[in-house]
Amino acid sequence: MGKYSYHDFLALMGVGGAHPGGLAITKSLLENAQIDQNSRVLDAGCGTGQTAAYIADSYGCHVTAIDRHPVMIEKAKKRFEANNIKVDLIRGDIEQMPFTESSFDVILAESVTVFTDIDQTISEYARVLQQGGVLLDLEMTAIPPLTQTMKKSFQQLYGIQHIPSERGWQNKYEQAGLHSFEIILEKSVEESLRKHHSQADNEEAQEFSASSSFDPTIYQIWDEHQLLTETYANKLKYQVYKMKK
Question: Per-residue pLDDT tens for 10-33?
Fold first, then answer.
């Protein structure tokens, strides 16, 4: 794949809402979180901080944001400072988070978990959630069966080792001690592509904050991403899973 990864592209381009549906989907799924000003919320894999900033500004609660990419952290910090928004920003890995047990009432993960060691990350979600806490996880979900060619393509471009099915995600959450499995949103990749190409979607415009200099060959990663998404659109969907501890 070269010297840049898919996440390097997102970081260097400063993509604000890289997950499917962007901020519009974030607003919708947060309606299921029952957040108030006393809530302790974790944005796991926060990227450039768009979601964390929105939660802190809209709900006035305590927000912690964590990401392992240094450029993402830099851009999130600038966002929070420019808008005078208080968020505890941590550079760290969600597979091994620097938080004590039962630190959060709500964890929000938006198209992040699948790019990690899934079992380890979900175990960490369960560890840092307080009893009765809620996990909202927007994730790429496979529509079985997947071919070996497809699995190899996703591994090469994204570094993804495994894309669980709906049942696979449920099993992983429950094995980590999370329960009350619920799907609160489902979005097919084919539907997303139709909306994107028709420009008929009312979702908010994508946000970019590109770095001042980078190798233009990085755009090849985006081209590969678009091609791969379109090629396998009928084998993927995005779902928001809600679990409780």
Answer: 777 756 556 777 888 899 889 989
- Token duo for residue 238: 């995005």
Helix segments in the chain, DSSP class H: 6-13, 22-30, 50-59, 70-82, 118-128, 148-158, 166-175, 189-198, 219-231
Edge-first strand order for the sheet with 88-91 is 88-91, 62-67, 40-44, 104-110, 129-142, 236-244, 179-188
Extract the tokens encoding 167. Answer: 């049942």
Smallest CA-to-CA distance from 211 within 113, 94, 70 is with 70
**Containing structural domain, residue 143:** 6-244
Supply angle C-alpha 7, 41, 240, rounded to 5: 60
Instruction: Residue 149: count other Cβ atoms within 10 Å of its Cβ.
Output: 10
> pTM of the full predicted structure?
0.89
pLDDT digits (tens, 9 = 90+) for 86-130: 999 999 999 999 999 999 999 999 999 999 999 999 999 999 999
Tokens of 97: 């988070």
Element (H, E) at 62: strand 62-67
Do the domain assignments include residue 50? yes
Domain harbouring 137, CATH code: 3.40.50.150
User: Of the candidates 120, 121, 115, which has an alpha carbon nearest to the alpha carbon of residue 158?
Assistant: 115
